[in-house]
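Practice problem 4.
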């Protein structure tokens, strides 16, 4: 499987790393794994810098809509995507579709900056 998912329940963090060409089905399976492991509300670090997809934008938008309309949608945690600076247009386009009031979603080209942002979000969540 070109998407490897690791979940730290202690840190409330899901890390997904993708390599090669990712299909929509593989993406959906990775999301399903996070939901089944109870990590929906965790922070998510998704590294797709070494990956691309053969899924078309229409299908990816349908997956995004499905996630928004799920009964647990309000519980979703923030997502930091790490993309290759020379690529990543698909991820940037999907991140731009984030609706006002939804969970925070940001796109980075540096893994350390993405992790720093997620750590800052985590501190804010703990203060609530």
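Answer key:
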């Amino acid at each position: 499987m070109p998407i490897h998912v690791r979940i730290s329940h202690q840190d409330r963090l899901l890390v997904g790393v993708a390599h090669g060409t990712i299909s929509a089905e593989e993406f959906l399976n990775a999301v399903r794994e996070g939901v089944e492991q109870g990590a929906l509300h965790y922070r998510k670090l998704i590294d797709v810098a070494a990956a691309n997809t053969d899924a078309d934008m229409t299908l990816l938008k349908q997956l995004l809509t499905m996630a928004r309309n799920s009964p647990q949608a309000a519980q979703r945690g923030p997502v930091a995507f790490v993309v290759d600076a020379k690529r990543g247009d698909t991820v940037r386009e999907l991140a731009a579709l984030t609706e006002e009031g939804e969970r925070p979603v940001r796109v980075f080209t540096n893994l350390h900056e993405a992790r720093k942002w997620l750590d800052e979000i985590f501190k804010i969540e703990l203060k609530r």
